Amino acid sequence: MTPSGRTIAAIAVAGLAAGVLVGAGAGPLTQAVSAESLAVFDRESTPADELAPGVVTYGPFSASRLLTEFDDVRVFAVRADQDLRTGLDDLGPLVCVSAAAPGREFVPTSCVPEEVFREQGMRGVLRGLAPAGSVGGYRDVERVLAVEWGPRGGPRIVDMTDSTVVALDDLFTDDELALGADIPLVRAMRDAPTADDVAEEINALTELPAAIAGPVSYGESGYDGLGITELFASLHPPMDDQEAHVCLSFRVEGEFVAWQCNPLETVRIRGVRVVVEHDGVQTAFRIGPNNEGINVEQTS
Question: Which superkingdom heads the taxonomic lineage of this protein's source (predicted)?
Fold first, then answer.
């Protein structure tokens, strides 16, 4: 099976990443005498260390260094103040790994706090996405690299593409993909009760076709400076040359004050995040593609 037209079987990735890399890593003696992995940031930066086009980041980073080249893939070490994949910024200084290759966009690994990296290193999976190729907006996963790096020595990389992906067409039809059938967040929305009392208002706010899943309420909560709040998620179908969107709409004391709609291509990678500003305080609410629950950040 060729790499083209494939997507991740997520459980297999996690299991195989752990199993394959145990055998691929350096032994205890080699680890003990190797230089600290983070020493890569001690050398002067060169043009080769600059993150290449095709490297996905969702926030600022403080430094990047080219770690290695694996076939046509350039693998980078990145220092950041927020997770390059999720945008979370409450974990302190972070260490991440990302990559770039011609004609392919890589989703970075999850980042780990630097203090954790110095003790344990990190493991993760780099997913190489094909260019967007349809109105449906889905992105085939064409490359899967398992990475183990740190706390000493260089990275160990295993190409797991052939063993961890399955043909996209075997899982979903094009019509199903165009409506997010492969996204756990969307599937959860379809199974949840609909908040019919706000559907018309949310459809008007988003200026998109009427929702075909949701609006789904995530319940009322109270946050400093905001009062009683309620968050709603909705799925809106494609229109003309636009793909389907997932929207988060935020209501304060019964009035909608903020909303954000992301195309499915973006939702598959980072979910949806809406920011509310009130009295000089920004509060961000994010729901990830795997329906991990609501992440809340407040900054002044």
Answer: Bacteria
